[in-house]
Amino acid sequence: MRKLYTAVSKGALVKIAGSSLALRITMLALAGLALYVGIISGHGTPSSWWKLLASVAAGAVGGVVARVASVALLSGRLRRLAKQVALLSTSKPSRQAAVFTSTVGCADFAGRMVVKRHPHLREAWLGDLRRDADDRPPLTTWRALRVALGYLCGAVRIRIQDTVMARSAYRAANYILSSRPRTRAVINVVLGIVMIRVYADQGFDGWLADVVSFSIAWTALDRFAEWLRTKWFPGAVTHQQDTGADKPPA
Amino acid sequence: MAQRIRITTPTLMVMQAIAQGYDGDVYGLLISQETGLGTGTVYPILERLEGAGWVEGRWESEQPSGRPRRRFLSLTNLGRTQLETALAARKSRRHMPTWAGGNAGA
């Protein structure tokens, strides 16, 4: 029973530490409970305000203690995870151990960021971090941390792919950029509208005075679109629901 | 569901790295090291390629001791075709005459 209680409380605390929303709710609940107890015990008399303040302070301290305990437990979990992937040796100096723990923590966090739609990535990332020594030379401490930070960047980009790129605005932009004649046609239409507007407002003389500016704008837009098309714009990805078929077997 | 992916230079490098094989199983970190691209660039590309059905992944067959399994990647037939098409297109672009009279890729 005691073991069960310990396991449940540890699990709850780790979950609280892993989620800022859960942590806020827990702290608010503790403060609210303290407030409620303070009001009930004081019945609104002047002397009760001290009790009320003391109860609120106790609630805040309780929340902070809960946070510290949960972070400590999370850190312990990360250390165990680091040992599981054999990155952390107990004989290593503490600084190196801290870097290893941070590395695994980064990779683990990155994996959790994308676990909903890409459940295979977490295990794949942790597996890549600690590959066989006979296969390739093992990663150095700082190199591993750099790789794990790359996982974090990758997770953010994958999340952006999953959310932003499925939107219609992105699809429209992608459609326009997917072919050079189409991109130029859009630039021509936009600049043509502006030129007609200038002609209507300023007459032929004003329009003629702005021809050079239009030429520069056209060239700049065309070059920018070309740069987007070939270098930066990462391509169309239609949102695809994960069927769960790619989950690693237990 | 087949998806269209625009093949940028990093995408092409990743596909070529998978096709090359490096005398063994190819995984994300190996591609990152061989191509010189960061892991933050390689893995999103791999996810896109896999989503489009150009690349397929499989888990390491045996559970290794002391670490999680790796995920090995290979090009599908569709991916191989797309890679060949992209390489041919790139090659033909290089030989297109420019206004200066030379070759664009020269």
Give me a quick take on this structure.
The complex is a heterodimer of chains A (250) and B (106). By secondary structure, chain A is mostly helical.
Description:
The complex is a heterodimer of chains A (250) and B (106). By secondary structure, chain A is mainly α. Chain A is 76% helix and 0% strand. Chain A has helices at 2-18, 20-42, 48-84, 94-113, 121-129, 141-163, 168-177, 180-209, 211-232. The longest helix of chain A has 37 residues, at 48-84. The two termini of chain A are 27 Å apart. Chain B starts with 8 loop residues before the first helix and ends in a 12-residue tail after the last helix. The model of chain B has no long low-confidence stretch (mean pLDDT 81). Chain B has a domain at 9-60 and 70-86: Orthogonal Bundle (Arc Repressor Mutant, subunit A). In chain B, 49% of the residues lie in helices and 9% in strands. The chains are: A mainly alpha (250), B mainly alpha (106).
Give the overall average pLDDT of chain A. Answer: 71
Overall, the morphology of chain B is elongated
Please identify the oligomeric state. heterodimer
User: Strand fraction band of chain A?
Assistant: under 5%
Q: Show unreliable segments of chain B.
A: none
Secondary-structure-derived class of chain B: mainly alpha
Topology:
The complex is a heterodimer of chains A (250) and B (106).
Chain A: H1 2-18, H2 20-42, H3 48-84, H4 94-113, H5 121-129, H6 141-163, H7 168-177, H8 180-209, H9 211-232
Chain B: H1 9-20, H2 28-35, H3 39-52, E1 55-59, E2 71-75, H4 77-94
Antiparallel strand pairs in B: 1-2
Helix pairs in contact in B: 1-2, 1-4, 2-3
